## 1
Amino acid sequence: MTAPIAVEITGVEKRFGDHAVLHGIDLAIGENEFVSLLGPSGCGKTTLLRIVAGFEHATAGSVRIRGEDVTGLPPHRRPTNLVFQRGALFPHMSVAENIGYSLKLRGWPKARIAARVDELLHLVKLDGLGGRGPTQLSGGQIQRAALARALAPEPSVLLLDEPLSALDLKLRQHMQLELRAIQRALGATFIYVTHDQTEALVMSDRIAIMNAGRLVQVGTPREIYTRPASIFASDFIGETNLVTGSVAGVEEGVVTLVTPGGLRVRGSASVPLAAGSTATLSVRPEAVRLRKGDPADATPDEIGGTIAEVVYLGSRVRIEVAAPDGTLLWADLRDAETTGLERGMVVLLGWPADAAGVWPGSEGAEG
Amino acid sequence: MTARPSTAAVRQIGPATGFFLVFFVVPLAILFAMSFWTQDGFERIPGFDLANYLKATTSRLYPAVLLRTILVGFVTAAIVVPVAYALAWLMRFTFERRGRLILGVVLISLFSGYLVRIYAWRTILGTEGLLNAALLQLGLISEPITALIFSPWAVMIVLVGLLLPLAVLPIWSAMTNVGRDHVEGARDLGATGLRLHRTIILPMVLPGVGTAFALSFVLAAGDFVVPTMVGGAQGGTMVGNLIANEFRGSGADWPMGAALAFVIMGLLVLVHLVTTRLLRVVTRW
């Protein structure tokens, strides 16, 4: 990261009584960066966001914004603003009054507030709707107004707590791109909490994956998708095949795993693995190649199996193959590649060893 | 959108409307008509005479009592509503889940009965009551404070105690519509303390506050049991007592009582309208 740091989270811990929600989080976010905190519900991502906003206080650690230590400051004294999950517009105020609220509190003259509100309405594409009440808006419009309201005081950092989660898929996809465009246009720093990995991939400069109160991996969407740092990360981002077995051997970084049922699979080890230890291999369905053929013709890199299911997904076709030991593997192919493939057919599966990652531990274990 | 009300709708609100008409509107209309009658000894003479209203507004006794009634009612409501608001706020946002428990306690106090609660206050405020005994024990006073009971203040203290549970309910109910994210959103945007309440919370619960104010104001101004029991000689008479006297015992004058009832009703409506308008102005943003 070459850009100056906007938010620096250092050693942040949060405990509610005996229950630890966050364990020593360290994260630096650059100016103009769009960072998503991604994780399953209960992973602590919202708590971390609320600690940055000032609504929760860290049990240990510090938060600095543009170099200033804000750890002990209340929300209204921080240069951050929060966009809430359901907008939280004030129902007794019009859209324009909602947006101008913070400016009026700061004592701006009326004309200046009106001009700024118009500018923001235009930015979020709500031109002409300033006079409406929050109940006269659609779900998408509410979130646009909430965004404009939070942007009004020009926060150094905008915090967004799953603002699109209540919208339907089509609108959500549209709003994702628009949010990203607004962030680019403003050159603002956004921290975005979501449990939706697609959303995080679409919008973020960097994604911080969280699980059970810890940061699992921080990186660009491409880094995280192509080089997940753990089983959890590979499983949480995108779709993947997971195969757990014991390490039969490691040769020049290529690990061979043997499942309890005797299936041998190969992948590249990200960390040193001891022979005989339990490990899990992850391979993306689109990396899996498939050809018709008898198991007897299999190369050492291939597995014989029977097609259990053919699922048509439009742009691609997902083939589910059952290996002799019962392991199910998915291969995603283009439609044209699947002619003649049917359920019950015997096929050979394979993938380049460097397309599959292997980590110690078993599936479902904490990353 | 304008259509004849469906039979289902009529069936649903019909009974309630009928009940309201027969047992409220009709008696009130009869009483209103009677307020223009005159009383001669034991006989009521139908007619149309403004004498009762004239007497209610210009005699020596009535205007003073009316004024005191409005004042006691207003001051009581003006104490009850902010306390109820604070209590509702605490229940909703400070105690959260235990707020329900507090609500339960508040409701139980309503079940304990009106007269019982007045007597309870007498044992607290009386010359040999709990409060005086405690103050004497502590040596803070050398003889009991007699002004604690049998004064207009005693009337207001007891009315506040009696009406608080009733006033909490509508405000708390309105407060359930205020989300934690509304409060946090306002704080995040820079509103704290009084400004948070004046610009966000109070406007959002204004209907509840209006109801609570109307309820406590009307009930306090209309009460005639509390003044009798704890008001004593100076604080004892409110318009309710006068009206009650006009309807019972010797020298009863129903037309006069009816006229007094409508005067106080008019005044209450007026004060309520002014107050709600004022609240709306104060909370305008």
## 2
Amino acid sequence: MAQRSMQMGMHTEKLSGKTQQRFFSPTEEENFLYPDGYDVDFNKRAEFDAGPLSPQEINLKLRELMGQGNGTIVMHNPGAKHSVAVGLLQRLNLHIKGSLGYFGCGLIDGPNISISGRVGWSCAENMLSGRVVIEKNAGSTFGAAIRGGDLVCKGDVGARVGIDQKGGTILIGGRAGAFCGFMMQRGRMIILGDAGKNLGDSMYDGTIYVGGKIAGLGVDAVEGEMTDLEVQWLERKLKMYGLEAPNGVKNLTKIVAGKQLWNYDNLEPTEKKIVL
Amino acid sequence: MCGIAGLIHRRKTGDVGTEMTSMLKSLKHRGPDSTGFALYGQPKGNELVLRFKVAEQDEMLKGFDIRREVKERRAEVDKRLQELGAKIVKEEEATEYAFRYRIAFDGDRRKLADYIEDVEGAEILSLGLGLELIKDLGDAERVSNQYHLSGFIGTHGIGHTRMATESDVDIRSAHPYWAYPFADVSVVHNGQLTNYWKGRRALEHRGHRFMSNCDSELIAVYLADKMQQGAKLDEAMKDSIHELDGVFTYIVATADSLGMAKDVMAAKPMVLYESDDFIALASEEVAIRSVFPHEIDTWDPYEGEVRVWKAEGRA
């Protein structure tokens, strides 16, 4: 898997020494199981009204319904409350009818979440795996530090999308604000509309694709060449979510790390002392 | 952290007192230290509304013989108003230490403001044809009840819930700030200005006065200075994006307009709802939902963005 992702140009660094190179494998069943997980049936469905509930009560309600074996849950009237649907560490189909406030769907590992409205700042922060699809717009720091899974916003998003992204795919149907992909380390970000200034600033690795205009690249972010494998992968990924690149996938602009910053010096600090 | 909010009815008037109270109640978790409202009612001819205080809330609890002092300070304000030719049409005691006067006055407003604020403990919260600025310690519900804001009919308003980080917990450090000496201009702000002292000194040299050590006051005075030099509101706001340093999102209101500006880093939040009849904006969508519980489309303004909306139905 590592070799294949390198062939696709998704990352180029070769980790060595104490750092272990580990990749998420969706075929490994243990990736989806936590010791306190619920045994749910996806054909068993429950609905509830989140309108009168506090964020804590909403999250407890989700756990209560999962505890009853419901694998498909429909939440109505979330009312843009904060920290809703967080810490879901298993497979679950969750349909949210409405909008979420800040920190929605954070720290999740495995669920498949659809949101009919908008999300506030820091949606799906630290997501490990699963899928979150938002039909409308999203606030800033969308998908901060995600490690895996697909995070999709069909509308516009604010600034600092995928800051510190460590894996997974972030897909934006509209435009995005400034500083997207800041200190990105791995994974893919696809912005089909315009991107704000300082795109990919100080990115270590990973790939950003942009369909519209780029207001400006950040430090050490450079244009890369698209490979055939990437084109195929992008076409498949966009099709999955019913999205299209404005001028076709082949005309997306690819941004990668230039790797000219100090931290790409081959010498470790102790080695440097010896040499110097 | 602080929470800011604003709304404007573009074609009619509404109960902006109740609406702003609901929005600010929803933002209580962003700052419970103090709450402030700048509400814009319908002007009554050329009569000015003067909101002022002659003591801090804290002084009323601790100050020795403070009630006698408050009485004397208020009497001095009345005397000075009379001296400058201002006729008090109606006077109301909002609290023991804060007052609302309707005055008939067509002289120099800056001179009037300076002369009144020269009275010990006196601070003009607002002076304008439609603007009424109310701020005090406590959350939105408390301040709104204390000053009877429910049922305040107007076209627009802005508000603030404060988490004190840069200055004291008192009324003078609470938002909104009136853009002295401009009638009907007020500002609320979420963020930190890093060139506050530099900017303050420059504006003081130009004759402006600062009542607090709160960095947010700089925005109000800065905009007032720009407009004094002939800039339009949106021009002054666009300049502020480059001349104010730090992270900020602020909302400004004038007699007939509502505006917002976001710094180039977009570091402070703002959610916006815009329709033909109504604009609402706040640090968090949950505040907008308090006046629009049904599904609406909202979005975040972008870095460096400046927007201004007008109340077209204003008399």
